[in-house]
Predict the structure of Bola-like protein.
Amino acid sequence: MHTSVSATQEQQQDIVSQDTNPIQYSIQSKISTNLQPSIFKIYNDSHKHAHHAGLRGASNVTESHFRLTIVSDAFKGLGLPARHRLIYKLLDDEIKIHGVHALQLKTKTPDEWDREMSKEK
């Protein structure tokens, strides 16, 4: 499942339901509110990992693995480890309490994203 969102709360609510995807909703809300990304894509890859040994007996197998692409000015001046620490700190409850098992992160500043996109053309 892939969801692409902008930073507005109203658009987030149109894309994913808090009732049917509470963890994804929480991730979107926290990232959008705290980092105000110009680009934010979230992919729920949990279905690819549902039968892995590490998840046997886990209470959360439907919202356990996410892949995030975040483009934000908040990353300016931060190296990759610091950017990832920032995300992990924001999503601490989702990881420690709600069973998010893995996050794959692509974190860029707007300038880095523009350079990357121009190389792909």
Q: What stands out?
A: Residues 1-14 have pLDDT under 50 and may be disordered.
